[in-house]
UniProtKB/TrEMBL annotation:
Signal sequence residues: none
Protein's UniProt name: GrpE protein homolog
Pfam families in the record: GrpE
Highest taxon above the source species: Eukaryota
Recorded coiled-coil stretches: 70-104
Subcellular location, principal: mitochondrion
CDD domains found in the cross-reference section: GrpE
Cellular component, GO annotation: PAM complex, Tim23 associated import motor
Gene Ontology MF annotations: adenyl-nucleotide exchange factor activity; protein homodimerization activity; protein-folding chaperone binding; unfolded protein binding
Protein's job: Essential component of the PAM complex, a complex required for the translocation of transit peptide-containing proteins from the inner membrane into the mitochondrial matrix in an ATP-dependent manner.
Aminoacyl-tRNA synthetase as UniProt keyword: no
Alphabetized UniProt keyword annotations: Chaperone, Coiled coil, Mitochondrion
Organismal lineage: Eukaryota, Fungi, Dikarya, Ascomycota, Saccharomycotina
């Protein structure tokens, strides 16, 4: 009974709502559902022919995993380090070669300069001592002239010339002395000088001691007698002077 009453009530309510609702006109229906016209058909065809380009980029290929990326990076890094090590080794080898070549060059330059100095010195020595043998041979002539002059007593040279013999002797003495002076001057011009160390200190590099005598009035080691004069050639001892030396008492 209750169900029947509720059903009747719902049906009556529905009829009232439908009766009270406004009826739709043809104009309103046209506004809600427009009829297709030729112009609208053209627009629809244009819309259907229009191309649509995607603005979203295509999906990228699937990337490798993180482990593979790290492995590739480590492989490339190891190759780079290997190349760097090879370049460093090559550079060190080149630097060593350069150092060796520089050392050889400096040694060659030093040897060449030493050779130049030695050659220059030898050439100069050849010029300075070219007449050494000839000068040594002339020393005998100089000694003979000195002996000849020493054999003329000083009294005969200073006294009045009473006889022709005395005059001849004095003339001979003067001639020999002049010859000796000219010869010594010529030898000196060519670098040959006399060593006459009378009264000097004994020098073993320039003097040759033939005997020693104690003399209280002279200092020990002093040359008091010259037995034979010496000579130097361009400051090199050609012949040492033979001398007598004072020894300690």
């Amino acid at each position: 009974m209750l169900q029947r009453t509720l059903g009747t009530t719902f049906r009556q309510t529905g009829r009232r709502i439908v009766a009270s609702a406004p009826r739709a006109t043809s104009a309103s229906l046209m506004r809600c559902f427009p009829v297709s016209t030729p112009s609208s058909a053209t627009a629809i065809s244009n819309v259907s022919c229009r191309r649509f380009y995607a603005t979203k980029p295509e999906s990228e290929p699937v990337q490798s995993s993180t482990a593979e990326v790290h492995a590739e990076a480590e492989s490339e890094l190891s190759e780079v380090e290997k190349k760097i090590q090879e370049l460093e080794t090559s550079l060190a080898s080149k630097e060593k070669d350069i150092a060796d070549l520089k050392d050889k060059y400096l040694r060659q330059v030093a040897d060449f300069r030493n050779l130049q100095e030695t050659t220059k010195r030898e050439i100069q020595n050849s010029k300075d001592y070219a007449i050494q043998k000839f000068a040594r041979d002339l020393l005998d002539s100089v000694d003979n002239l000195e002996r000849a002059l020493a054999n003329v007593p000083e009294e005969q040279r200073t006294q009045e010339q009473e006889t022709e013999t005395d005059q001849a002797l004095i003339s001979l003495y003067d001639g020999v002395r002049m010859t000796q002076q000219v010869l010594e001057h010529t030898l000196k011009h060519h670098g040959l000088e006399k060593i006459d160390p009378l009264g000097e200190k004994f020098d073993p590099h320039r003097h040759e001691a033939t005997f020693e005598v104690a003399q209280p009035d002279k200092e020990p080691g002093t040359v008091f007698f010259v037995q034979q004069t010496g000579f130097t050639l361009n400051n090199r001892v050609l012949r040492a002077a033979k001398v007598g030396v004072v020894k300690e008492a």
